[in-house]
Amino acid sequence: MSKTSTGNFFEDFRVGQEFRHATPRTLTEADAALNVGLYGSRFAINSSDEFARSIGLLRAPLDDLLVFHVVIGKTVNDISLNAVANLGYAEFRWGVPVYPGDTVQSKSTVLGLRENSNKASGVVWVRSTGTNQKGEMVLDYVRWVMVHKRDPQAAVGAPVVPKTAAAVAPADLIVPEGLKLGGYDDVVAGSPHRWEDYEPGERIDHVSGITLEDSDHMFSTRLYQNTARVHFDAFAGKNTRFGRRLAYGGHVISLARALSFNGLANGFRLAAINAGSHVGPTFGGDTIYAWSEVLEKAPLPGRADLGALRMRLIAAKDFPCDSFPGKHADGKYHPAVTLDLDYWLLMPRRA
Amino acid sequence: MSKTSTGNFFEDFRVGQEFRHATPRTLTEADAALNVGLYGSRFAINSSDEFARSIGLLRAPLDDLLVFHVVIGKTVNDISLNAVANLGYAEFRWGVPVYPGDTVQSKSTVLGLRENSNKASGVVWVRSTGTNQKGEMVLDYVRWVMVHKRDPQAAVGAPVVPKTAAAVAPADLIVPEGLKLGGYDDVVAGSPHRWEDYEPGERIDHVSGITLEDSDHMFSTRLYQNTARVHFDAFAGKNTRFGRRLAYGGHVISLARALSFNGLANGFRLAAINAGSHVGPTFGGDTIYAWSEVLEKAPLPGRADLGALRMRLIAAKDFPCDSFPGKHADGKYHPAVTLDLDYWLLMPRRA
Amino acid sequence: MSKTSTGNFFEDFRVGQEFRHATPRTLTEADAALNVGLYGSRFAINSSDEFARSIGLLRAPLDDLLVFHVVIGKTVNDISLNAVANLGYAEFRWGVPVYPGDTVQSKSTVLGLRENSNKASGVVWVRSTGTNQKGEMVLDYVRWVMVHKRDPQAAVGAPVVPKTAAAVAPADLIVPEGLKLGGYDDVVAGSPHRWEDYEPGERIDHVSGITLEDSDHMFSTRLYQNTARVHFDAFAGKNTRFGRRLAYGGHVISLARALSFNGLANGFRLAAINAGSHVGPTFGGDTIYAWSEVLEKAPLPGRADLGALRMRLIAAKDFPCDSFPGKHADGKYHPAVTLDLDYWLLMPRRA
């Protein structure tokens, strides 16, 4: 019997099947520093213990997207090692903040399965949950992914397609316990603009670009213990349709989020993702630019000190975003676009 | 109103204007390790908690140049985002050591302004100060930088040119409190040579070279949350006069300092910079070599256990330094030279 | 007198000579995270404090190979700066685990010397020992290395060739104090296969490959404060027989070990190295694959909860290992092979 895992194929999954994913990881101050070094993030909440304490937290929590990278990275070996494509996310919410010293692990439950008509692959829906060492939820989401069949002839069950919410409702957003924004210091945070200053339809060009090298995105993929070889095997990459290694899509999300500091510096916490698409591939040497659009504004129940902004974040490669490249009327994206993300951001309100 | 910062232009500054720069940063053990990984530094004081305690410190302090990188990195967005060139430093002194867990922030005051005769730019003098969470000074310096005008027609005030000291006097050098070198272990530190063994005029070739890659210098620029895009935007870099990304000059200083271990291993602490010039640009793929010259020796008031050496540190690229490339009689530098730094170094004396 | 070290040459060594190597290093959580980021290691023991506590340890110990990199890195400046080639290791055993906060230093004793017949070089045998701040042994080994003579005419003493054991006996393997595997969780560790499931002669292809870039291996060499310039000086590298920088061989060992997780996930601890050879050079851009063979199985005296596997680990570059490339009948290696390592691995037994 082979002791080597080659991952699960479509016909290996069963609705209701549960996975406890391997290799929990104790995140530390080092992950915080590496997150700054890899992406250049400048949000004060993740950079300064003093700032974090001034808004009621224990110390600087780890970057929200870092938590995402670690949680999803652990699921790859069981869920998406044989993926054709990542199709979508829903009901994606962050829970309690993760602090240095916390140990994060992931588990998943199969919610749905539907074979494709060509019988070569099928769609797998899972709910994945990241927890800390106390069992508290740090991230929870539904993801669906197209997975190869090992054997196109293998018989599979009747399709089960789960129903997921089109977006996370503002009332369902989770505000970290103890958070108090009365003493929030705009100057230290880097912007005078608060929740009241943003309006739906407003577009913000984040101006700067950051180039990512192969060495950078491979480092992040390894750091998150993500085993999707397409990201770090240049030899095998030569025989793929791209002819080379593909940057981990999460690397681009983190770069775009870091760039969005210029215009959204007070958007201190990601609360939820409504939808997201890696529109195009990214490779070593590409320079990532980004722009944002305010989609919606929502007050939060019982909170006078902060509100939520529903944002669209677009990243483009080798294309500055002062012309706001996006989706054309025909439904096609501008060719430079690599990411289209719809998410909820928490921001302080004026006293 | 745009929420995006494009930085200050020359006509935006006023003498006496004060800036509290955004995004304080809690430095940690991770920054210490990354400093070793990025530059290969081998000074025992920054590498070993045990060694640091043996000379009276709490634990291994963070590398002095790392403190510089972080303090100056925070000033970029307000002071030098639209810089034409970095012109000089003066009265540049390190204060209390920075330990893992300390939170560093930066502030600046505009000391002087002088428009250039072409009216396209002007020189801005600032005093910048880095402090820890207790408000103690960790680094303090005057810097002057040439900054573009947004509008050449904009009227500006009469020139104010501050007077700065030509060099830091030995009596003004700050020795960390509690430092006691009675138990200083030369073998562990890596050299038998102490303050008494160096003489003005002595030249030291540091022998080894270290190649820096684009991935390396971009990582350090992001780690220090330095927003000078010229360092990490390869796409925009194509349209600059160099046709490519320019390595952050501080990266070269740290490499040269790390190389200087071979010959100056007991130079455990930088106390001050008298002057410094990034003589030439450095790019990914360049190999940095370095050599030093002893400029001056100074005992320190009330200290029998340590003295100061005023050193000149020259870095050259793709050019080993056994021939000591420097400034020619005509005032021009050898074409390989990229850095010329004049600084004060603390070193133990013999008992 | 020159203050610059150019390392020791063959005629500088004396049998019985002792070295306390410079620059002890306090290893931290950052080194743990960097080890994951550089190599993609997924062993739960080094990744999760919670997992490590569940098997009786204080917290997640640092990766065994990281300890090796740091201990040997410190010896380079005194022992092998002028090496022609690394020839072998013997009696190579890990001692107490190294935890974040421990300070590691190295010392060496010259065991033997034998000039080569061409008088241009000779073989130096040293016993090197890494210790923590309490003086406890963390790693101990004999290494022999061929070192240039400075002057071929220099007279040297009669040859002294030490006797070393051909392999480490199972009874001599060191099991970390307090280790208790009763609660070992296979699912969290990532494999259902325990000691009983492996048989001598069994071969395991570790499937995935990881590409290493120049930026990656230079970072690791600097991080370990290893001064072997062949690894990080691209300018000088042009004039070597390879015409370029050579990756640090330890980088390849760590990559191969990380890859071996797929098939050996429960091999949680390296106990000893019996022999090892860097069969071929590795360069930036190479993709490393690996496979393993079980050489021997040994129970451990007094331990029903764990046993030892003697493993052979082969790494190959730009060559997937499903065909198990190794040594041919004529004693020559398959041209893709870069590493052949014979080591002892600890693995839990079934209750």
Walk me through what this model shows.
Three copies of one chain form a homotrimer. The first copy, chain A, has about 350 residues and is α+β, with helices and mostly antiparallel strands. Chain A has two domains: about 15-150, Roll (Thiol Ester Dehydrase, Chain A); about 190-350, Roll (Thiol Ester Dehydrase, Chain A). Chain A is about 20% helix and about 30% strand. The first copy, chain A, has helices at about 30-40, 45, 50-55, 65-80, 185-190, 215-225, 235, 250-260, 260-265; strands at about 20, 25, 85-95, 105-115, 120-130, 135-150, 205, 210, 270-275, 285-300, 305-315, 335-350. In chain A, strands 1, 2, 3, 4, 5, 6, 7, 8, 9, 10, 11 and 12 form a twelve-stranded antiparallel beta sheet that branches. In chain A, a hairpin with a 2-residue loop joins strand 10 and strand 11 (about 305-315). The longest helix of chain A is centred in the N-terminal third of the chain and has 16 residues, at about 65-80. The mean pLDDT of chain A is about 95. Chains B and C meet through helix 1, helix 3, helix 5, strand 8 and helix 9 of B and strand 2, helix 1, helix 6 and helix 7 of C.
Give the CATH level 1 class of the largest domain in chain A.
Alpha Beta
From the N-terminal CA to the C-terminal CA of chain A, the straight-line distance is: 65 Å
Q: Largest sheet of chain A, described in full?
A: 12 strands, antiparallel
The average pLDDT score of chain A comes to 97
* Helicity range of chain A: 10-25%
Rg of Cα set of chain A: 20 Å
Pfam family, one (chains A, B, C): MC_hydratase
InterPro entries (chains A, B, C): HotDog_dom_sf, MC_hydratase, MCH/BMMD, Thiol_ester_hydratase_Rv0216
GO molecular function (chains A, B, C): lyase activity
